[in-house]
Hints:
Blueprint: E1 5-7, H1 9-19, H2 26-37, E2 41-44, H3 45-52, H4 59-66, E3 72-73, H5 79-94, H6 100-107, H7 113-123, E4 126-128, H8 143-150, E5 155-156, H9 158-165
Parallel strand pairs: 1-2, 1-4, 2-3, 4-5
Helix pairs in contact: 5-7, 7-8
Amino acid sequence: xxxxxIVDSNVFIQGKNFHYDFAFCVGFWDWIExxxxxxxxxxxxxxxxxxxxxxxxDLGRDWAMKMPMDFFLDDAGDAAVxxxxxxxxxxxxxxxxxxxxxxxxxxxxxxADAFLLAYAKTYGHQxxxxxxxxxxxxxxxxxPDAAIKLGGIQTLTIYQLLTTHAKPTxxxxx
Length: 174
């Protein structure tokens, strides 16, 4: 069975603002859609919710609105995911390494991180995020570190995913 990936909102937000600006790199967004059509690349509804908080006219917001709804997998409405979510909340509440503000942010139901982790743990998907492991960090809970502590969840960056699943597409425009 092929790996399946769920993408964190920071990949989309950083992509549209920097690396994969819609003005010159629409191929990235087409690649995401092709990965979805192949049944490999998805995200979760909490990520969609975060993207839709963008201002009217924000191209990332517009893109999220145009994507098929089932690209954004049901997280909060899935009982099995919510069981894993509850386990993540118990872990975060008990992990005294992180400051209370970091644990509170992680527990915020409007934030996607814990839902990504719960979905990945429940269904074995890998999380694509721009966050990096930083075990010394205490002011926030990086997804890769939470994935390690929760066990059985793999993370990778968008660049690692592109290396595995993309062909070179950049052409010079004179």
